Amino acid sequence: MADLKFQRNFGIAAHIDAGKTTTTERILRYTGMIHKIGEVHEGAATTDWMEQEKERGITITSAAVSCQWNFPTVKGKADANTKKYYFNIIDTPGHVDFTVEVERSMRVLDGLIALFSAVDGVEPQSETVWRQANRYRVPRIGFVNKMDRAGADFLMVVNQVREMLGAKAVPLQLPIGAEDNFKGVVDLIRNTGIVWHMETEGMTFDEVPVPEDMKEEVEHWRGQLIEAVAEYDDTLLEKFFDDPNSISEDEIHEAIRKATIDLSIVPMMCGSSFKNKGVQTALDAVCRYLPSPVDVGAITGINPDTGEEITRMPNAREPFAALAFKIMTDPFVGRLAFFRCYSGHLDAGSYVLNVRSGKNERISRIMKMFANKQNPIDFIEAGDIAAAVGFKEIKTGDTLCDENHPIVLENMFIPEPVIAVA
Ligand code: GDP
């Protein structure tokens, strides 16, 4: 059984044009699944990969794409001590017309990267998605993209997230330089600068001391960060005032993780996905701060026969229960039903009950979508996301389960949002 602690199911939410496609492409490149990449700004992306994707009907806008990330990275390279994380990136459509689709995807993801343009800040669609994420209590980290553009202003966006979205946005970094001169970031946790190598477009970097003229600002924001998460670690604030150097990085990370999962804060980072700057750090933050299916815990459903409430743990030994969140047609394999498995285990070739239709249907194949290929897998287990082939009748929102243990997940209990106001 896979260790669910290392699984992350997350989406990237953004207003159109903020750079979601570019960022997703970068992620798939860094995670080693793509070797050639289309540059979006040069018109339609036209690499072999994209051509092939178009033909096969799976793209990075596939409902869910899977990849692996080696965490942590050292100087942009995989270190011997890395830990492999398994990502399912769930598509959250950025266009206003797809609001209902965003809603569906929100149900199956555990965390979000909220992407903003450093020039345009909080835009109408960011607000819509934000409200939906509040409704489903989805923890998020903020990534302020396009720091290389004229007019880029990281702290302006941080303020907008506070004021317009009512969230306690807390910078984890401060940019070093902006616009053409955007060189790197100060990591407020480590209290050190990171400057990317221009010739490798941010793929590698040097650690540098905090620039002299930023020291005061860094101290201020580092204090804000510690204060914002202090209630999640009793000793943090004490240490901060007594001897800030006695705080370990791990202590801060853990407090940020708890505060993020609790929706108390939204950690904010910045970069330029177009220039390959900062995306890798954001992926490390996904591992560090966004919840795993274990953190999310049990889900609640209804027994369709008795009307009783049932809970299921994210555990492969529980009875199988899954939710279909997107139906797509692939020219090669036919109808694909993307689903999230909340509990249990399902072998390809076996039968599941669709509670709505009352039919037991055979899943001929279970597929995982990677950047450049579709891989059939033998089984799927709790916490994971895949696509099923073989359904005769299926709709978005259908619960799929073990016929001996029927459950309906559609009426999943959704608590009222509690978001701390800055
Ligand atoms: P989406 O609509 O959110 O998927 O946005 P895209 O990824 O398609 O990006 C929209 C436009 O912004 C494209 O022309 C990209 O090349 C450009 N872009 C994306 N990220 C950046 C960035 O970090 N810096 C700059 N200067 N341009 C970017």
UniProtKB/TrEMBL annotation:
BP term (GO), one: ribosome disassembly
Tr-type G domain location: 5-294
Binding positions for GTP per the UniProt entry: 14-21, 91-95, 145-148
Places the protein is found: Cytoplasm
Function, as annotated: Catalyzes the GTP-dependent ribosomal translocation step during translation elongation. During this step, the ribosome changes from the pre-translocational (PRE) to the post-translocational (POST) state as the newly formed A-site-bound peptidyl-tRNA and P-site-bound deacylated tRNA move to the P and E sites, respectively. Catalyzes the coordinated movement of the two tRNA molecules, the mRNA and conformational changes in the ribosome.
GO molecular function, one term: translation elongation factor activity
Residues shown, of full length: 1 to 422 of 716
Keyword annotations of the record: Cytoplasm, Elongation factor, GTP-binding, Nucleotide-binding, Protein biosynthesis
Organism, as annotated: Ilyomonas limi
Family in the record: Belongs to the TRAFAC class translation factor GTPase superfamily. Classic translation factor GTPase family. EF-G/EF-2 subfamily.
Name used for this protein in its record: Elongation factor G
